[in-house]
Amino acid sequence: MASADSPPDPSPRGHVLLAPDRFAGSLTAAEVAGHLAAGLRRARPGVALVELPVADGGDGTVEAAVAAGWRRVEVEVCGPTGRPVNARLALNGRTAVVELAEASGLRRLPDGRPRPLVASSVGTGQLLGHAVRLGARRIVLGLGGGACTDGGAGLVQGLGGRLLDALGKDLPPGGAALRSLHALDLRGLPDMSGIQVVIAGESAGPLLGRGGAAAVDGPRRGASRDEVRLLDAGLRRWADLAEAASRRAARDLPGAGASGGVGFAALAFLGATIEPGAPLMLDLLGIAERARGAHLVVTGEGSLDSRSLRGTTPIGVARAAARAGAPVVAVAGRRGLTGERLRRARIQAVYALDDIEPDIERRRRRAGALLEQLTVAIADEWLPPDRPIP
C-alpha cells in the first residue's frame, strides 16, 4: 500500500510506470492507464508495466488510491437527489480518502439532469461518518465534481446534524431550502477531536457574493440567474447560523466557496485545512517511490497546456520522476506545450490524440483506441526491441 502510513509496494526495476490523470469528458485515469498498458503489452510484451492512475482530489481520487493498493470500502449512501447510491472510500491504515463526486457528484444525478436547488452533499457526510467509524484519524477530502450548491449543509446532515425550520421540522435537502433555516441541532455529530481533515485542492473563493459558491458553481450545476440569487440568499442564512454554532468565522476563508460551498462546512465544522491537491495526492499514492528505478514514466491528461504548468497532477508526476532519474513522456488529447515550456515541465515528449485524429467528437469517442495507437510510437522511440531493459 502507498500512503503516509506505510511505504508502497516496490515496483520491478526497469519497469514502465503508467501514471496518467483522467481525460475529462472521455476517460477516467484508470481507463487511460489501462489503454496505455494494453497497447504497450502488444508492442513490447516483455516489458514490466506498473499502472498507477493519479488524481488531484477531483473525480477519480478514490479510484486512484484503490489502484495504488489502498483498501476499497463500499457503502450505500444518499446520492445528490436522495436516491441511494453505492459509493466508495479508500482506506490505508488510519488514513482515509473520501471524494465528494463518489456520493454527491454530477455523475450521480439521475439521468444526468441538473438539480441545482435541491442537490445535496448529505451522502458525502455519510461517507465521512463511515470513515470515522472505521477508525480513520486522518481524512483526505476531495471536493471536485460535485452536483450541489448547498454550502455543505447536507454534509453536516449526513454526519448527524439537524437543520430545522421555524416550526422545528427538518429542512428538505438542497441550497434553496436554506432560506428557511431557523436553528441547528448538532448533538448527533460524531466526536471529531483528534481527527485531521485535509481538503485536497486549490484554495477557491469565499462562500458568498459575486465570487462565491452560488455565483461561480451555481451556473455549472444548471442554475439560472434568478436561482443563483436564491441560492446565495440561502447560503448567507446558512453562514450566519453555521458560524454561530461552530464558533468559526469561515465564510471568507480561502476555499470556503469550493464545490458549491462544501468547503465552508468542512472549514467551519471539521476544522479542515487545505493543501494543493496534486502534490498531496501524489505523496499519498507514493509516486516518488514507484518512479524509482523506472526505465520510463508515462503521464498525461486531456489537455496539456499552459494551465498545466500551474501545478496539475501530470506536471507533479513529471517532476517527481525527474528527481528519481526516470525519463518522462506524456499523452494528451491536445498538446499546448512545446519547446522550453515542455523542458521546464521535465517532460521529454508529448504524444497527442489530435495528431492522429483532428475531429474533436471522434477523438472523444475513440480516445481509448487512439491511446493504444499512440503507444506504438512511444514503444518505438523509448523501448526499442533490440535493446534490453536493465
From TrEMBL:
Domain of life: Bacteria
UniProt-listed GO biological process terms: organic acid phosphorylation
Pfam family, one: Gly_kinase
An example molecular function term from Gene Ontology annotations: glycerate kinase activity
Family membership: Belongs to the glycerate kinase type-1 family.
UniProt-listed NCBIfam families: glycerate kinase
The protein's name: Glycerate kinase
